[in-house]
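In response to reviewer comment 3 from the previous cycle, which asked for concrete evidence that the modeling workflow produces usable outputs, we include below a single protein chain processed end to end. The sequence was submitted unchanged, and the resulting structure tokens are shown without manual editing.
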Amino acid sequence: MTSKPLEVSMVYVNDTWTVGVKTPCNSLGVEVKVQGDRWIPGQIIMTAMACLGPESSYENWTHKLFSQPVTWKLDGTALVLRNGHGTVELKDAGPIRHM
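The workflow returned the following structure tokens.
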């Protein structure tokens, strides 16, 4: 699959980590348990815009990635997420713009 930007963020509220992922189509939130170098997924919540074309396939790929445990590793300035479905290298984009 070609590179497409994903916006990924994490928040910790009420003893729960949630990973937020914005794809070129929809967004998803994944509750995760952090166990050492692994994120174990729990409940997944997604927006439901009907996207056509490649945007839909990017969303499906991302959902499959985060539907199974991923290992994480800091590699220099990048956060690398990996499992049997694929690998994502994330780089810091700076502060989040607020609405």
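Residues 12 and 35 are 15 Å apart (CA to CA). We consider this sufficient to address the reviewer's concern, and the full set will be provided in the supplementary archive.
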